Amino acid sequence: MRIGVLTGGGDCPGLNAVIRAVVRKGVTDYGHEFVGFRDGWRGPLEGDTKPLGIPEVRGILPRGGTVLGSSRTNPFKIEGGVERIKANLADLGIDALIAIGGEDTLGVAAKLTELGVPVVGVPKTIDNDLGATDYTFGFDTAVNIAMEAIDRLHTTAESHHRTVVVEVMGRHAGWIALHSGLAGGANVILLPEQRFDLDKVVEYIETRFQTRYSPIVVVSEGAMPSDGDMVTQGGQLDAFGHVRLGGVGQWLADQIEKRTGKEARAVVLGHIQRGGTPTAFDRVLATRFGLHAIDAVHEGDFGKMVALRGTDIVRVPLEEATRELKTVPAARLAEAEVFFG
């Protein structure tokens, strides 16, 4: 078989590990040939490819990002996009596609499967918000990066007797904030799943100031106050209809400083969470996903996504994986609230 591989959406630690595993097993065990599509769905849309054999995947396991490049291209928003993809796949002799991505990338994959394009999906997102899988690779790396930042910020906050607000990624799901905040000993954790009461946040902070320690607040970029909305950077939307978020951390720091009379600073981790070397957990998970994805392709089991259930890798329908986001249950936030204040 001649198989195309693409990576779409935001870059994520572990993408290269998936690509490496797919190619290594696909070539050595099954004798398949691979073609890399550049920059997500733009690649098959424009027929933009690069060689993808064993020599091309050597040494990429520890590298962050993706050697194939990525984009947020949505072929269903482009006139004749699906027909162009089908024509390019036929011209290139592609028998199947492996799409590595999050909700948007795999949403396109699910629609293409219904239209007769043979696709197998691999779940990728640092937000860990894809349904049907217990964990996505990239999440563990993002949490560890955020946790290390929080660890460092504790000491500078205490030295200057100030509040530090740490803004982490998470548009609709607060898994990064919950895990990094809990692991980093944050005094308040604010998630998109539950609107926060600013008065209560200030109360927690003032309680913390009564000790010799200083408050650390971890907030997801999509978190909202009880009487407000998401803080955005302009109203421009991407190809999948997402507005660019950012600014809730600074807004919160300003409000805290105004209400407590003590200095507050905002730290936005942003794309630092997505870059750099993947953790051991993410390397192993991504590798296993890649190995099982090429098995599914070889067996002709299309329209599926590989997923982690417990410690096993299973296959689930793409439509199930993209049906709804996996958000943080109220009970998980309640566990963390024991440590607030």
Your description of this structure?
Mg(2+) binds at residue 103. The structure is a single chain. The protein has 12 helices and 13 strands. The protein is an alpha/beta fold. The protein has 2 domains: 2-137 and 278-321, Rossmann fold; 139-275, Phosphofructokinase domain (Rossmann fold). The longest helix is centred in the middle third of the chain and has 22 residues, at 139-160. The radius of gyration is 21 Å and the shape is elongated. The N and C termini lie far apart (58 Å).
Question: What are the main properties of this structure?
Answer:
12 helices; 6-phosphofructokinase activity; AMP binding; four-stranded parallel sheet; 341 residues; diphosphate-fructose-6-phosphate 1-phosphotransferase activity; alpha/beta; elongated; Rossmann fold; seven-stranded mixed sheet; Pyrophosphate--fructose 6-phosphate 1-phosphotransferase; 13 strands
